[in-house]
Write the structure tokens for this entry.
Amino acid sequence: MKLGTLIAGAIAACMLGGTAMAQQAQPIVIKFSHVVAPDTPKGKGAEYFKKLAEERTKGRVKVEVYPNSQLYKDKEEMEALQLGAVQMLAPSLAKFGPLGVKEFEVFDLPYIFPSKDVLRSVTGGPLGASLLKKLEGKGIIGLAYWDNGFKILSANKPLMSPADLKGVKMRIQSSKVLDAEMRALGALPQVMAFSEVYQALQTGVVDGTENPPSNMYTQKMHEVQKHATMTNHGYLGYAVIVNKKFWEGLPADIRATLEGAMSESTVFANAIAQTENDDAVKAMKASGKTAFHDPSAAEIDAWRKALLPVHKDMEGRVGKDLIDSFYKEAAKFGFKN
């Protein structure tokens, strides 16, 4: 072989090697899309994950966080994840029912969690893990559960008792359980994307809604809602999920590092959720735009009695055995349904 040919081959090999090295140097991009504000528990959790992931992979991973439905609205984001247009989401647990994994709607059942201890026992234990496993058939891997908190009711009229909701148009997420919940109260449920709620309240398309206080405050809903009642009747949580093909295609060391970052971000997000909600209530009360009602024990009992029949009504959809499993977790802490 001629010397010139050898030199040319060596140069070509170096060029190819240089190209490969340049390609390797390109960071792995994770687009993390969500529909709430950056200053919510979920928004802060996403930013904390970004920080840890980028630091611990030493720049090999870049996390791009897109809050406030910048990329996709509620109904669009799940399809975008499945198609690989984004790699990570943190949708509310109610979003998995329309996807075909209706067991997740058990989280929407009113008063299904009598305490935070019961909630943690479910989401941090085998019951929560078994539910996340059901997502894999949809091309999704569930990484963690993140809290937002317990929901309160708001409207432009006082909501002192269940009867006060009769005929009130209430925005809900797309969930058969939430639909049944509102109908049990005599309300008129209206499914609507989260990003559209403020304007709908402002223009009277809907009269009220249910949200954890941090969501109500950061979306400025208190500016267009005259009354709120601290019913704490339902739970709003999220599952942090990733595209299965993307996740399983990551280098093993990168995936392990990201799992560790997600574990710490979960502790962080869940720890701040209650504080964020408490601060939001204080801020909304201070604004003077919304009158808050703190129900007595007897009033809460009336809300519970009005809503607990929804559990029985939803057995056929969610699964009686699954609901019973949640009851058993509650019984470990001395609660009876």
In short: Residues 23-331 form a domain with the D-Maltodextrin-Binding Protein; domain 2 fold (CATH 3.40.190.170).
